[in-house]
Amino acid sequence: MVLFALTIFLSAALLFLLQPMLAKHLLPYFGGGAAVWTACMLFFQIMLLAGYVYAHVICRYLVPIQQRAVHCLLMLLAVMALSLMVQPDIIAFTAAGPLSGIIMFLFVTVGLPYLVLSATGPLLQHWFAGRYIGRSPYRLYALSNIGSLGGLLAYPFLLEPWLTLATQRQLWLAGYGVFTLCCLALTVTQLPKLAQGYRAQAVKLGQGTALHWLLLSAFGVVLLLAVTQQLTQNVPPVPFLWVVPLALYLLSYIIVFNKPGWYQGAIWRYLFGLSLAFALMLFYFGGSFDLWSKLVLYLVILFSGCMLCHGELARLKPQPASLTGFYLVLAAGGALGSAVVNLLAPEVFSHYWEFLLVLALIALLLQVRQPPQPAWHTPLWLLGIGLFAVTAVALQWQFGQHNVYSSRNFYGSLVVRDLQINGQLQRQLIDGTTSHGAQYLDTELARQPQSYYRQGTGAALALQHFIPAAITRSSQQLQQRHIGLVGLGSGALAAYGTPQHSMLFYEINPDVIKVAKEYFSYLADSSAQIEIVPGDARLTLAEQLANGSQQFDILVLDAFSSDSIPQHLLTLEAMQLYWQHLQSDGVLAVHVSNNYLDLTSLLRNQAAQLGMQAIFIATPAAGLNPAAQWVLITSNSRFIKQAAIQQAVRAWPSALQSAVSWTDQRSNLLQVLK
């Protein structure tokens, strides 16, 4: 019995340790956004379904001795695949598009080992039920989820802060070897003790039972991914914020499948009812909440919804002989939910409406096959759902009536909105929940940059007052300025361009390029030579370096997605790449305005390692223009000593934390949370 528990625990831990590790590995190659995690989840759910199909088929149609032969062969093939495989070039997969590229890369690298790990839970529970007649195998399902939870929590708190990605991979491979030995030992020692005719039974279903299981499982996954999307719109999508929601998702399975009495539906229905109100507040007024309040409320919504979905699954589970079929339906629901978020929702919705929609659908589904309730319960519950829907529609009408354009793709959601500001019509670009640029539509005001890019901000000062340190350049060279800009937004910084400027924008999101060209006039009105390079800036800069340095005088880093900046653009290796493209006396301007992160210590340390000086320029809020914070990094003393720059420099907002440093192999978000 101990060997069953150990093997299941190891398989689940390895399964869920692999997920954030691989997703973090892929982040720099696919834009560094939250959708990388949801795309990985789609692959994991598909492979989980494949593993459950495999387990159900061999348990249903093969006798134990045949099951042992097939499974041992599959495990050995998986070990060979891991030991012989050379790590493929991820960049080769980016050409297929972000979603397809991620799934293809994961399938090539870990497809077969992940299939084996996925099949272990239902397979061993079936063998346990045949070996220990009369004992419920469902507690092993709870143990499996405990292993999953342990693997998840180990990553952000133990592995990620202390080990490089290469070391993490070696550790995982060693763990997989131990798991394989345990599983082989179990097949040798335990399978011969099963009756030779012992096979899984077909699931005996009442009317609509399988559909009910499928929907409960699917809605739980949609809620998990929708909450994760909401959280990572404003904070970098890093393993910590992937793991916490997924850990609560797993914890709900642990609770409800460990002991039937641990699920008290009435309590969770009450909390879920409150969660509907929380969801509306967060969806429409989330900017008014601090990070920790927002995190707690989102997790309450997620946990109450998952407890209800998974509690109902535990209440309606079949007899142990049919458990592989039951798990197969659950896995199909998980894959369906993940596909809805990754494939259907971006095509149907221009914003993250699946978050509110799945909450309403869970509430409705709870009225199906529910245990006996007081007569007043159903009308009151339906009234609450109706109020939730009406309020959501009313708020959306209020917020959406000024929208002139909206879109959503792999990289996020965009809204272009026209509002009356001080008697003037202003057009705003909203990325997720954060304004990423504004422009007055009046022709006399249209050329004046607004928001974080207005006169006196760090980027504006760098563009207007750059003076080369080298005095040996000719006067003609002194007049020329080659400027790189990572992140396009509304194109506001183009307003500072002159005929002597060439400005090269790097932008990964094609919808942002469309919006900047069609709905804002900064690019068209600029006197500079403008060029836009689509694609991830870091990958593009690395490719361009093969043909020589761009020799930028100024490089502006403003690659936010909502209020989040991709981590891979701030590592030491990224900084070294930027300076290979900058003149020796150039200036790197980094936008650090952020509600949740303090990036100043990170940039000060990175600058010191590069032998550069960093200064902090903070422009206070003025009217409706928000406060803007920029860090300028340079070795150009002539530039820094100018009166305009010295007058704008401010004291650093927090004490220097010397330990804060990010590399491609190691980074820790917890170090920079405010």
| Overall tally of structural domains | 2
Strand order in space, largest sheet: 7-6-5-8-9-11-10-12
Contiguous helical run count: 23
SSE-based structural type: alpha/beta
Runs in which pLDDT lies below 50 for 5 or more consecutive residues are 472-476
* Total DSSP E strands: 12
Largest sheet: 8 strands, mixed
Output the CATH class name of the largest domain. Mainly Alpha
CATH architecture of the largest domain: Up-down Bundle
Taken from the alpha-carbon principal axes, the silhouette is globular
CATH H-level superfamily of the largest domain: MFS general substrate transporter like domains
Describe this structure as you would to a colleague.
The protein is of the alpha/beta class. The chain has two domains: 2-396, MFS general substrate transporter like domains (Growth Hormone, Chain: A, Up-down Bundle), CATH 1.20.1250.20; 452-672, 3-Layer(aba) Sandwich (Rossmann fold). The chain has helices spanning 2-26, 35-61, 64-84, 91-94, 98-131, 138-162, 165-189, 209-232, 239-258, 265-285, 291-315, 323-348, 354-365, 377-400, 458-465, 475-479, 510-518, 522-525, 537-545, 572-581, 600-609, 637-640, 643-648, and strands at residues 403-409, 412-421, 424-431, 434-440, 481-486, 501-507, 529-534, 552-557, 582-591, 613-619, 628-634, 649-650. An eight-stranded mixed beta sheet has the order 7-6-5-8-9-11-10-12, with helices on both faces. The chain has a four-stranded antiparallel beta sheet with strand order 1-2-3-4, with helices on one face. 50% of the residues are buried. InterPro entries: SAM-dependent_MTases_sf (IPR029063).
